Amino acid sequence: MTNKRQIYLDYAATTPVDERVIQKMNECLSLRGFFGNPASNHLFGDKAKQMVENAREQVAACIRAVPRNILFTSGATESNNLAIKGVAFAYQTRGKHIVTCKTEHKSVLDTCGYLESMGFAVTYLECNEKGLIDIEYLISALRKETILVSIMQANNETGVLQNIQSIAELTRNRGIFFHVDAAQSFGKIVIDVQQLPVDLISFSGHKIYGPKGIGVLYISDSPRVRLTPLLHGGEQERKLRAGTLPTHQIVGMGEASWIAQEVMQVEMEKIKQLRDRFWAGIQDLPDVYLNGCEAFCLPHILNVRFQGVEKDLLLKKIENLAVSNAAACNAISILPSYVLRAMGLQNIEADRSIRFSFGRFTTEQEVDYAVHLIREKYLEGDKNE
């Protein structure tokens, strides 16, 4: 395998850190830079705090929020946990019912499962065969004791986009908090909290060419959302997230966010063209199908079902293509994708599906090579009769 050409087509799992981001992060690591503890009351601490607050402003500007609404976490998983558990415990006297969807990220589903063990009731919405939630179905699931709805903006396996605007308006009108996991969509499509009445939004640095181990939770203050903290032991981040702030990672998150917003329109159009080029090159293969919704989908994700061949066999033949046979958070499971099964696929159909995702450093030559390799290996005669 080491002698074969290696091509990365798994940008939905993680992205390489942009060199511009690395440069900014390096400025915060050494004695000659901004290495101080942002909470320290001396010059070194003040300089580090200034870098942190600049990054907070960068992230806030990307979604038209004010900086005080931006809370730094260790990643979208922690942000999802803090948003859901934080609301649940802070408002449980108002009600103990939460609504989410069966196709959510594990960090949402497992958090909801934990809350069920703590006496909360959770409704897990079905979706249709394209992965979309019916708004009327969502309305029917709401109760007078519903305190939170948590729906991801874009699915991490299929890229399918939900109608977040309609859900946000619905929940706001009913006085129900609305949390959105935007780990996959942030930096890919426009998010404007001045127009989108969402109460809590989760982001992640490593999906936008920033470092791993850093994320953001946007917390609305109009209306103000109270959260019960998960971590205790310090007054950092408005007493909602104790612990020494990792200046270099926060600065990386800020820089990656700023770059993503600056290049988003041009970059996403380029990536969509690459994704469409790839799909055009393989869609005529026998028993090959698209999973998801072509009309409402992120520009960089493509989930393809290769019905005519054993997936493990195909993956072995195209092993120099870095692709995903499951979401990274669920990769150790031996079961077929729960997301695809929730969309109505049979186990064998879900098990023969592969996610391809494209990014900033993907080239036409890489896409063409991937198409050529897949066509060659898929048509070698190992298909099932």
Tell me the helix content: 25-40%
Shape: globular
CATH class of the largest domain: Alpha Beta
Compressed to H and E, one letter per element, the order equals: EHHEHEHEHEHEEEHEEHEHHEH
How far the N terminus sits from the C terminus, by CA atoms, comes to 29 Å
Radius of gyration: 21 Å
Strand fraction band?
A: 5-15%
Total helical elements: 11
* Total DSSP E strands: 12
Which stretches of 5+ consecutive residues score pLDDT under 50?
Answer: none
On the 0 to 100 scale, the average pLDDT is 94
Strand order of the largest sheet: 2-8-7-6-5-3-4
CATH superfamily of the largest domain: Type I PLP-dependent aspartate aminotransferase-like (Major domain)
Task: Write down the domain tally.
Answer: 2
CATH topology of the largest domain: Aspartate Aminotransferase, domain 2
Largest sheet: 7 strands, mixed
CATH architecture label name of the largest domain: 3-Layer(aba) Sandwich
Structural class: alpha/beta
Could you describe the 3D structure shown?
The chain has 385 residues and is of the alpha/beta class. It has two domains: 7-16 and 264-378, Aspartate Aminotransferase, domain 1 (Alpha-Beta Complex); 19-259, Aspartate Aminotransferase, domain 2 (3-Layer(aba) Sandwich). The protein is 36% helix and 14% strand. It contains eleven helices and twelve strands. The strands form three sheets. The protein has a seven-stranded mixed β-sheet with strand order 2-8-7-6-5-3-4, with helices on both faces. The chain has a three-stranded antiparallel β-sheet with strand order 9-10-12, covered by helices on one side. Strands 1-11 form a two-stranded parallel sheet. Strand 5, helix 6 (164-174) and strand 6 form a beta-alpha-beta unit. Helix 3 (76-90) packs parallel to helix 4. The longest helix is centred in the C-terminal third of the chain and has 36 residues, at 247-282. The model has no long low-confidence stretch (mean pLDDT 94).
